[in-house]
Amino acid sequence: MRVLAAGDHFVRPDLIDAALCDALSPDLSADLEVRELTLPWPHEPFGPVGGVEEASGTEEHLIEMLEGAEICVTQMAPLTAKVFAASPDLRMVAVSRGGPVNVDLSAAARHGVAVSFAPGRNAPAAAEFAIAMMLAAMRRVPSSDQALRNGIWQGYLYAYDAAGTELAGATVGLVGYGAIGRIVARVLRAFGAHVLIHDPYTDPEAARADGVEPVELDTLLRRCAVVSLHARLTAETRHLIDADRLALLPEGAVLVNTARGGLLDYTPLPDLLRTGRLGALALDVYDIEPPPTDWPLHATPNVITTPHLAGASRQTAHRAASITAAEVARYLRGEKLAHPAVPEPVQDPRA
Fold first, then answer.
1. Would 339 be classed as within a structural domain?
2. How many domains does the chain have?
3. pLDDT in tens, 94-105
4. For residue 142, what is the domain's CATH number?
5. Rounded to whole angstroms, how far apart are CA atoms 304 and 285?
6. What is the mean pLDDT of residues 300-329?
7. Which residues are catalytic?
8. Where are the beta strands (DSSP E) in 58-147?
9. What span, in angstroms and rounded, lies between the C-alpha atoms of 200 and 333?
10. What is the per-residue pLDDT across 170-210, written as a single tens digit (0 to 9) for each?
């Protein structure tokens, strides 16, 4: 059985191959012929390809590499309707990311292809990064570092009106309480913060058992000195934090977005920061990636920006490969997938 390990320069093909060896029994692994493909991301940005989002590489090259393959393990390959139509042997796709946005799921279902994904693969990395962004924004770490490099000693930041704030004793709001949000909440509580969460898909009693307080979104925004976004981007959540909701934040609040750029309306942010209505903004994601050189927030005070790095840890790459390899093993054993994206039953491919 032929497998295409369509990796990239993060979740590399050799990591996928090694994870398959670890996940499969000797008899199953002996039957596999693994072909490797290295896609150009992140050395070249991902983007829309053939009707799917956040993909890397071309449909034509993928079709060529999928010839005779029954299984494709990938993070970024563009699994489009065209690719499925041209790959009649393909029976299973394992996507090593939190959502299979690079897969046309309707086309997969039409062609009888099982699709799995890897929820939580970057949760520890993204949670740690979000906490780091909060601390950096609240204590002005990047701006004071840059000032010192430019020969400016900002001793005045010890003045009461200029001093930063602490997470200990702060009320912090998390918009979204999935795998990442739960880790962030646990760390915040260890700092001594009171944590509010808003997530309509979370059981309120389960959230309270975690030691957090579930509230409506507008209540969270009014009460929190720090707000961090952890929701998935959907039609329902696009511009969830718009101008009206930004106006609900307390004066001087800190806003962190390490989730998806489309959750936030960026237009009102420069004025809110210049006037001090918003105390600081920390962004790892943007409405346009990368943001243009004339982007207004580049010249706005109290803004921290990083290039979509929250999930970029080596452990994330290994977890991604391991989760998808485990799904391949389940498929080959004729078992149900743990994380199916296409709800068709999966038949034993050897039957």
1. no
2. 2
3. 999 989 999 999
4. 3.40.50.720
5. 11
6. 97
7. 260, 289, 308
8. 71-74, 92-95, 114-116
9. 36
10. 999 999 999 999 999 999 999 999 999 999 999 999 999 99
